[in-house]
Amino acid sequence: MSRCVALLGGSFDPVHAGHVALAELFARLLHPDQLRIVPAGRPWQKSNLEASDADRVKMLELAFMRAGFPVTIDLQEIERNGATYTIDTLRAVRAELGQEASIVFLMGADQLQKLDTWRDWRALFEVANIGVAARPGFDLAVDKLPPAVAQELAPRLCTPSEVRAAPHGRVCVAHTLAVDISATQVRAAIRHGNNANGLVAPVVLDYIQQHNLYKS
Ligand SMILES: Nc1ncnc2c1ncn2[C@@H]1O[C@H](COP(=O)(O)OP(=O)(O)OP(=O)(O)O)[C@@H](O)[C@H]1O
Ligand SMILES: O=C(O)c1ccc[n+]([C@@H]2O[C@H](COP(=O)([O-])O)[C@@H](O)[C@H]2O)c1
């Protein structure tokens, strides 16, 4: 079987239990040879990130330190100049891994709902597969997606094993994830001095408190 590399991109400001659950779910569904976490350098659809690149990376290392599957933090988007576009990242990974490898970009339902706003979004399918997980508050039903996204997706839908076997162009959907946590909610809880236990890993919460993050 060809190599399979799954990538989870995000702002991770900070990494929270929803991110870890999403990565764990696809580690189980796809059995990738490698799961890369890719912190965005300059996510162009978000206003300013609050934590520094170094703090976001450190929190990722802590959050995934004890994951029961091999995780690598890929720094390419932080090291690249200019706005962060996933298509650039996936082309770089394709150039690195060759034409046979299965590349799977993971995302939550909120990102699928706006996939047609991403840079060169149709080209993503020429380079990678997509693995989408449910997220509370964001409908995964095809008729609730923007028509262009639904149309692009419909012929590509298949099982995780089929995605694992295909270099690119396939999509699998995991309906079972139901973690109602966002980084926005974590930042707000910390800013207001509310309990953030359960939203982020205890080691990450310690780091946030020790470094006085998300207070102002
Ligand atoms: N609770 C969740 N369930 C499923 N997917 C999630 C969840 N939280 C984040 N994701 C997915 O993880 C990726 C990175 O998300 P991101 O770092 O922007 O976190 P976020 O919680 O959405 O952040 P913010 O609240 O700052 O917008 C995206 O693909 C997003 O859809
Ligand atoms: O390529 C794009 O145009 C694009 C637009 C929006 C989001 N993304 C990617 O989607 C991932 C999740 O984004 P975010 O903003 O929810 O952290 C992250 O890897 C972003 O770089 C990518």
TrEMBL record:
SUPFAM superfamilies: Nucleotidylyl transferase. Its EC number is 2.7.7.18. Keywords: ATP-binding, NAD, Nucleotide-binding, Nucleotidyltransferase, Pyridine nucleotide biosynthesis, Transferase. Pathway: Cofactor biosynthesis; NAD(+) biosynthesis; deamido-NAD(+) from nicotinate D-ribonucleotide: step 1/1. It comes from the Bacteria. Gene3D superfamilies: HUPs. The keyword Nucleotide-binding applies. It catalyses: nicotinate beta-D-ribonucleotide + ATP + H(+) = deamido-NAD(+) + diphosphate. GO terms for molecular function: nicotinate-nucleotide adenylyltransferase activity. Pfam families: CTP_transf_like. InterPro entries: Cyt_trans-like (IPR004821), NadD/NMNAT (IPR005248), Rossmann-like_a/b/a_fold (IPR014729). It is an enzyme of class 2 (transferase). Catalyzes the reversible adenylation of nicotinate mononucleotide (NaMN) to nicotinic acid adenine dinucleotide (NaAD). Belongs to the NadD family. This is Probable nicotinate-nucleotide adenylyltransferase. It comes from Massilia solisilvae. The lineage of its organism: Bacteria, Pseudomonadati, Pseudomonadota, Betaproteobacteria, Burkholderiales. The gene is nadD.
